[in-house]
Design brief:
This protein is mostly helical. 70% of the residues lie in helices and 5% in strands. The longest helix has 26 residues.
Length: 239
């Protein structure tokens, strides 16, 4: 088994043009829908979306100088990032980028695909999941991180360049639809499912800063909408 990093990166760096037939777009859309919409399937695939959500918190926390001590996931799609730092700004910034993370990752991936960099995007994307493995602090987090890291590892070293477009579009499409689904869920928590509001990032930020949860929910919605529009614009440009 040859694990030549230089060779793998050279293959990932190859420009890949998007030239899909209508039936291929329909097939990709159908697979994305089957991965997100059926409740039984979402119980499993939703763990991947939760991991991206928590990675959004981790990256945002590190950007503000917080020390990330661990990542915990639950089989019920719950998640927690434990970090340490000073100042309300770091609490706010790190707390805001959980729900928007899947939409922003989808947007960046689709932009990369439209620019011909699908392979490079997959390589960088894979690196994030290898990094996530170091933060895992319970069994669900370890299992999900191991599986995603193994898949990422396989893509980087063994996937042919001809598959990059399909893999990048599948990942970005999944995260786009999953991100929208998660925002529908958090809006529901703040409206007609108030018994679960204590789990909302907006509520946690408000509790930590002595402000209003609705304020941070609006900010998250704006961030999410920005990512969604960027992703949609890049997707449209591919047709």
């Amino acid at each position: 088994m040859n694990l030549n990093i230089g060779e793998a990166w050279a293959r990932l760096a190859q420009p890949v043009a998007v030239d899909l037939q209508s039936w291929q777009w329909v097939a990709l859309a159908a697979v994305v829908g089957l991965l997100v919409l059926p409740r039984r399937v979402w119980r499993i695939t939703g763990l991947y979306s939760t991991l991206v959500h928590e990675m959004g918190h981790i990256v945002a926390a590190m950007l503000t100088g917080r020390f990330v001590m661990g990542l915990r996931l639950g089989w019920d799609h719950s998640g927690e990032v434990v970090s340490r730092g000073r100042g309300k700004f770091s609490v706010i910034f790190s707390g805001l980028f959980g729900y928007p993370a899947p939409l922003w990752v989808s947007a960046v991936m689709l932009w990369a695909v439209s620019a011909g960099y699908a392979g490079r995007a997959l390589g960088i994307y894979a690196l994030f999941f290898v990094i996530a493995l170091f933060f895992a602090r319970n069994w669900p987090a370890l299992v999900v991180c191991l599986i995603t890291s193994a898949v990422a590892f396989a893509v980087v070293f063994f996937a042919p360049a001809s598959a990059y477009i399909y893999l990048a579009l599948l990942i970005s499409g999944f995260l786009l639809l999953a991100g929208v689904k998660d925002f529908v869920k958090v809006i529901a928590v703040h409206t007609w499912r108030r018994q679960d509001v204590g789990q909302s990032d907006a509520y946690l930020i408000a509790h930590a800063t002595g402000t209003f949860a609705s304020l941070w929910l609006v900010v998250m919605l704006i961030l999410g909408a920005t990512g969604f529009l960027w992703a949609a614009n890049s997707l449209i440009s591919l047709f």
